[in-house]
Amino acid sequence: MQRILNNPDNIVDEMLEGFVKCHSDIVKLVKTNDDNPRGVVAAKEAPIAGKVGIVSGGGSGHKPAFVGYVGRNMCDAVAVGEIFSSPTATAFLDAFRAANGGKGVACLYGNYSGDNMNVKMAIKMAKREGIEVKTVVANDDVCSAPKDQREKRRGVAGEIFMWKCGAAKAAKGGNLDEVIEAAQKAIDSTRSVGIGLTPCTLPAVGHPNFEIKEGTMEVGIGHHGEPGVEVCPIENAENMAKRMVDLVVNDYPFTSGDEVAVLVSGLGATPVMELYVLYNEIEKLLVAQGIKVYRSYVGNYFTSLEMMGATLSVMKLDDELKELLDMEAYSMGFKQQL
Amino acid sequence: MQRILNNPDNIVDEMLEGFVKCHSDIVKLVKTNDDNPRGVVAAKEAPIAGKVGIVSGGGSGHKPAFVGYVGRNMCDAVAVGEIFSSPTATAFLDAFRAANGGKGVACLYGNYSGDNMNVKMAIKMAKREGIEVKTVVANDDVCSAPKDQREKRRGVAGEIFMWKCGAAKAAKGGNLDEVIEAAQKAIDSTRSVGIGLTPCTLPAVGHPNFEIKEGTMEVGIGHHGEPGVEVCPIENAENMAKRMVDLVVNDYPFTSGDEVAVLVSGLGATPVMELYVLYNEIEKLLVAQGIKVYRSYVGNYFTSLEMMGATLSVMKLDDELKELLDMEAYSMGFKQQL
Amino acid sequence: MSSIKNQNGRGILLSMVHAIQENKQYLGDVDGLIGDGDHGMNMNKGFTLYEQQLGENETTLSDGLFDLGTVLMNKIGGSMGPIYGTIFMEMSDASQDADEITLPLFAKMMEAALEGLYGIIDARPGDKTLVDTLYPAVQSLKASAESGRDFVQALEDMAAAAEKGKDSTKDMVAKYGRSSRLGERSRGVLDAGATSCCVILKAMADGMIQQLKN
Amino acid sequence: MSSIKNQNGRGILLSMVHAIQENKQYLGDVDGLIGDGDHGMNMNKGFTLYEQQLGENETTLSDGLFDLGTVLMNKIGGSMGPIYGTIFMEMSDASQDADEITLPLFAKMMEAALEGLYGIIDARPGDKTLVDTLYPAVQSLKASAESGRDFVQALEDMAAAAEKGKDSTKDMVAKYGRSSRLGERSRGVLDAGATSCCVILKAMADGMIQQLKN
Ligand SMILES: Nc1ncnc2c1ncn2[C@@H]1O[C@H](COP(=O)(O)OP(=O)(O)O)[C@@H](O)[C@H]1O
Ligand SMILES: Nc1ncnc2c1ncn2[C@@H]1O[C@H](COP(=O)(O)OP(=O)(O)O)[C@@H](O)[C@H]1O
Ligand SMILES: [Mg+2]
Ligand SMILES: [Mg+2]
Ligand SMILES: [Mg+2]
Ligand SMILES: [Mg+2]
Predict the structure, then answer these.
(1) Engineering a disulfide at C46: which of B46, C76, C123, C202 sits with its beta carbon 3.0 to 4.6 angstroms away?
(2) Cα(D50)–Cα(D93) distance, rounded to whole angstroms?
(3) pTM recorded for the entire structure
(4) Is 1.20.950.20 the CATH classification of the domain at B10-188?
């Protein structure tokens, strides 16, 4: 294993220590009790009195997600789990506390059984403390369940649009219901798909978690290597783009005249120049269908350790989502100026 | 090869097409003549009349370098070469033209024989057109030549500090000599070292460019896989950090009481969480020597396709460099707000 | 004896802790075949943390189950934290006010555990998860309680049912959790969660039988 | 004849172009052993672009070398662009005003090429680069010019010297360029640049000899 590690059991805590030191202008580590000795990552100014708090959380190994999306006009606090493993309920509770500015908390997270369970429990605990929490559960990954079972689909890189829009709504003074509505609209308007090219290795395990044969690609792969809908011979960027755009566009009424936001994220080890080659093809295909790219994001936005491959997320925009997307933001993983 | 490609011969041009579409709020592609059909990447507002132009350039495959450092208060234009291959002299000339706001151009680039030759020729051509160009040649890589032959050393991730400080000086209204002086001071105050963990594969070639045996690491590796000073069994993050800090600190009088900027860059495929683990160790070692980290940057800032490993760059600060480093900047690869 | 004093919980809980500790490697190996190999590590971490917290103290079975559940929930995260956390906390809730744990009460505790679990997961018998161990164990206990069987015998039957249920996962195809990635290829190997659940139920039965025979 | 008309450049330049095209695969293979395998591709790209630019036109040798040098410099970048660009542009400069290319003039052209090259690279004979081909070729030409040798014979000697120089790189250790990474392991294999330089010089000599024999 050619990796940079001390004891793999401590990797998450050590990463957090380094992260918080490095980004002390944006975030802080909040430790409120011994039940969650790790603490949670909160925005420097959090909690902001009178603002709806934005919380997320999930397993580690997806950098910049989740800690990289804590910051100004982004998430107020996130709970941090072990690699590929949901944070505990207490960790989510601590994140609610750290984000709570008295107007309630919007917990915007991805649809994984561990996260669902732990968030549900944390909400019960928060209620006892008088913190009101409402949730939006991201399910943008089109290949993770059929269209008529959208509630079963996983959340992937589209979560970034959900955070961005929900957080912008909160920053603009929206109340909890308005924030939830905006975040829900963002994720309901978003469809994602991933193509995996190589597997990844959890440091504590030491060998690849699953297999993708050289010369093949896995269409519809999940962020932890969850199986896709098809394993086929590897294709060129143009054909990969075609598959991805077809899967995404056909799952939702994206039609000529629509304006969209596009996010192409690497899974970790694919050179970023290749992501731009892929984006170039995707953009051409969208434009050919009369769909206009209003904003685009290309880079390693939501990764799976050192997997190779990429995800595409497309969000259909209306005036409200455009305004929310356009807002300034300043976090480690997402910085946007006017 | 598990990569996202069309014809590998066109990868650079396709990447550029995607890059410029994606970041049209920051950059533009400037095509001025048929001798350089690729064009150069220039800041949206370039050339800025009355400001010294900042130019760089180099081979591709180092994303975000070099195109990712074009933007507000960063480079005004960069020349783009094939993968791991210097841009042509004409490309550099075009970058000079695109950046020239009438006050001369500072060409801040890395010490590689191809770049040296092509820049030299471009300067001759620029002179004929009445564009004054002065250069700073980065040589921050301590392992690429002995201390008494610093002029032979290669430029690596420390170039980012050179661009940041030179560009800030220009943005503050410095004249050409002042800009050159600031950029030279930045790179003279910077020392870098890399550790390589895996090789990388050029898409047009199809097999790894060199070998790093599983279980070993190459200390002092260059950004194209240039050999380091030692191949040894892979170590834990703490010991890697110790080696890196020792090599860097001992090469230059970094001493107790100094304030420094630290940049830990991944080489491409190392998970970013591991870079924070490494940074955490580096910071502890510096602090233990009485050296204070004034600002730090961790991420994939200067990569080598899908190599695994990391580089450390440390810049010793004085009041001027602090002020230059602190300035706002907005490019794809380097965004900083106050 | 036909019931256990709730206040004598320590021995039963330590029996469960030690069984997990002894099977750490084995559970890891089972998970390694079609999962990511960390199940033994995860479970051992949680149970050992509880052991440290308990220290030299006595505990009622109800409080001990509650504390164990809390530790799992708070410290191991993922799915196993809430899954085993829920199981133990539901058992605790259902017995909290009792001085004596009788067979009918124990059957109710286990039923509550299964119901609580169904409240948070979608897997059901046949999906190659720990439900395949827990469900037949609960059914066996319910039947024993209804027919007024001897408590010790009922526990032995429960352990056998758990074992059989665990073994049945070998021929199943995983539908939830990490191994579901393998589809048909997950057949032929035990499920890790079903295995740890069997280890826990057998150790609990052992600990209780010891009390009943005292 | 003892000199070549500068205006008859086309044949000589096409001889060089075709030699590179024919050796594209071979040069790639040589570079693949200790480099990255792209040398044939790089060179072929530059020379073929020049061929297209020339089209059906006639050219003087001086202008042709200048145009070829410019294409290499403008289109292939890296180190080879400026290296071969410099070589051909220096040869062009040194012959620009001449109607006839005599042996002494050609020797001067080649000397200018070597000196121009030395102005931009640090490698010298023995460093396993194209200098090991170019240097002995220049030395041979100078000696022939000084001793007033026949032009054709001088060109044949130059080609032989280039060949011998190229072969000598086999036993050398690379100090510049990509192969220097391998250190001692670079021994035993030809240098790619030395090989392409030999191909070019021999093709140039062939083209010139054809003119001289006309
Ligand atoms: N969604 C789920 N529903 C029911 N059981 C699950 C689910 N996910 C995992 N499990 C159980 O958890 C076991 C694996 O636990 P463990 O290895 O600790 O976690 P992980 O799979 O995250 O590495 C599986 O064998 C299965 O019994
Ligand atoms: N710094 C240098 N000085 C002299 N010759 C060099 C230098 N770098 C490369 N070469 C020559 O270039 C040849 C390789 O050319 P090529 O394969 O086209 O470029 P690259 O090495 O960038 O792939 C080498 O065999 C060597 O002769
Ligand atoms: Mg796991
Ligand atoms: Mg597991
Ligand atoms: Mg090359
Ligand atoms: Mg080469």
Answers:
(1) C76
(2) 18
(3) 0.94
(4) no
